[in-house]
Amino acid sequence: MHTPAPLDVPRKPLFGGGVLSLGATLAALTALGCAYDFDAALGPGGASSASASVASGSGASSGGDASCEEPGYACAPAIPAGWAGPFVNVAGDPAPSCPLPWGTAISSGNEAWPASEHSACSACGCSDAQGICVAPHSVLSTDAGCNPGNGTSADLVADGACHARDGSLFSSAQTSSAPAGVKCQASGGIATDPAPGKSQIVCGGGKPGEACSGGTCFEAPPDGTSFCIFKNGDEPCPQGLYAHRRPTAYAGVTKGACAACACAYPAASCSASVTYFGDPGCAVPASQSSDASCQPFGYPKAVSSYQVTTTFAAGACALTGGAVTADASPSEPHSICCVD
Questions:
Q1: pLDDT at 54
Q2: Contact in structure between 53 and 216 (CB atoms under 8 Å)
Q3: Which end of the chain has fewer CB atoms surrounding its CB within 10 Å, N or C?
Q4: Do the domain assignments include residue 48?
Q5: Where do runs of H (alpha helix) occur along 172-232?
Q6: What pLDDT score was predicted for residue 46?
Q7: How far is CA 136 from CA 160, 174, 272, 274, in A?
Q8: With DSSP H G I counted as helix, E B as strand and the rest as coil, what are the percentages for the chain, rounded to 5?
């Protein structure tokens, strides 16, 4: 009897690792040579040619089915057209390992989660508004109305330090500043999908033996398992001995999605607090202002230095987004049908 080398098929990760296509599965099993001669098993036209006496569980391992002479072997029915096998199937949470002698994972997937469960999005949030104030603009006028045509205008250094002026006489002052670079940082809006259902694993690697009535002798399935067939897609079981449908297993998932969180920029303002001094060392105040209105001095005063600071202020950022735009759904289904 031809003894094939073990089928080297890596265990597929659950939900997202994919599943071997039927073509890929058949190609991989071809490495076993005559051990998986599907054409011979299917007969003319690819259909099962006869019913079979089938053993399941290790009850057959002590002596095998009556139609299989080799101890520990059982008769696996012929594989219907379009299906792959024979395999055994194990299920559980967490995912179980394939039992010997059927110790090679051919495909893995998960049952669908309950229909009542849906994707959810984490709450959106916005940081406090951030921004800067541009350099304050100052108008010093020789009249009481802050007329720039009767004086001088310049941008001031808003660092709170003392800065010298030339000591000219002025009768009014007006200082203003404007916000720039206003922004808010958005967060959240991350999709969380339902947890996958119970794992369904398709296991191969059992050694074939001689032909039997209606099929081929294989090492008997372990306790709690039976001979199974496998097919990509969500398909009903074929007529015949492989009539017991396992839950549809899904090798992938289409993930849920959320609308991106965004923060609309709020209204913002800047105020300049400026003090003019009559001496070059910022010791004798001549005028003080904390808003953008015109500040008359009352009489002409020498402006020999100044100090100025600015304050940025903004409202709350308007929040948008964060709603579910697509619900997660299982994908890449495959069907498993077993003898019992």
A1: 40
A2: no
A3: N
A4: yes
A5: none
A6: 36
A7: 12, 10, 7, 9
A8: 10, 45, 50
